[in-house]
Structures are given as C-alpha cells and as structure tokens.
Amino acid sequence: MNTAPHPLDRPIWSMLTGRQAHLAEGDTMALRLDRGYGPFGAAADRGETAQAALAALVPDDGALWIVEHEPWPLPPGTREVKRAVLTQMVAEGPPPAPRSGDPAIVPLGDTDADEMAALAEHAQPGPWGPKTHLYGPFFGIRERGRLLAMAGQRMLMPGMAEVSGVATWADCRGRGFARALIGHVMREMVARGERPFLHSYADNAGAIGLYESLGFRTRLHNHVLAIAK
User: Fold this and answer.
1) Which residue, 29, 70, 111, 165, has fewest beta-carbon neighbours within 10 Å?
2) Calpha distance 131→165 (Å, rounded)
3) What is the DSSP letter of 72?
C-alpha cells in the first residue's frame, strides 16, 4: 500500500508549501525562501520544467541551497558550489528538564539582531540572513550585557518545529550553554504541541553526541546541494 511521503523527507519543499508558505517566492514548479531569511529553495520534482524553474530562482550574486533525501541533480545553467550530508534527528520522549545551575535564558528580538548576526557569523550554525532571527522565538544567554550564546527555531512542519541557530562564542564554549538553550527551545516547542527536530552535518560527531544526550535520534540522512549561476 502506498503511503504519503513524510514532510521531513523534503523539508524545504514542505516548509515553503505548508506552515511557512508566506515566506516563499516562486510558483508551483519551484520555490525559494525569502532572501532575507536564507538561501533555501526546492523544485516540485526532478522534471525538466521544475528544474528550469528552480534554476531561475538562483540569485545573481549568491547560492541557492537544496536539501533533499536523495542527492539532487544540477539544474540546467547552474554550477555546484557545495555538497554535504546532513543527519536529520527527531526528539523522542519528553524534553530534558532544566539543570540546577543552568544560566538565565532570555528572549531575543529585533533589538538583538546585530549581536545575533555577529554571533552567527562567528559560529557558523548555518545560513544566516538579516531576517533569520524572525523565524520564531530565539533565546540567548547574556553575561554583563554580552550575548554569549543563542538558539531558536527555523523550519516548521505539521506538528513539528526545527531547533536551529545554535551558536556560542568560541571563548564561551564548554560551559553548557548549548545544552541549556536547546533544552529550553525544546520545552517551548513541546508546550506548543510541537515535536522538535534538527539537522547537523553528518561529520559533526560532537554536536550529534550532544543532541543524542538531549533525546534526539537519527531519522535519516539528507543531502545538501548549494548551486550558483
């Protein structure tokens, strides 16, 4: 018996045709995310028409990122900038409870945007644009006014939300900030009735180990293809 594909099998297409369709540019053949939020795009299928429509969404001065369960072919008129494998993980069971001694966690917003962008540029948690902080709730840890670490959300699926933007300044690592922030974001999602999921580069063993300790389990591996004109 045929079953419908899971939204996480094609995460970019799912987000841009579902809960975050208001952030999409394009048409029924291909869509890309509002450039202010990030570089992601997806085609309706691998057919010639959809591939040409996806190629037309590639910016003149940057790259378009495709994330699919199977390796994606190069659309016509584009060149490969990057390929990588992602581990897609989904939370199982209840979110972790706060730990005694966890630092204070504060909400972040528009007034924190410049600091968040600087931290993202430093830590490289994934593509970051001038509107990325508007995806949804972001939280941070501050000390003497300085933003030391942050985490928030990105893709939204039916009944699910992606933990993303996890970043810590290099001189502040090893203090448990990422663990505390991810746990906080997970609890916020579960309170809204959403199941947390996330992506990590498959070769980032340290990050994957942390996520496993927080209750995430590998669902599948996705393939990233970044393309340019």
Assistant:
1) 111
2) 12
3) P
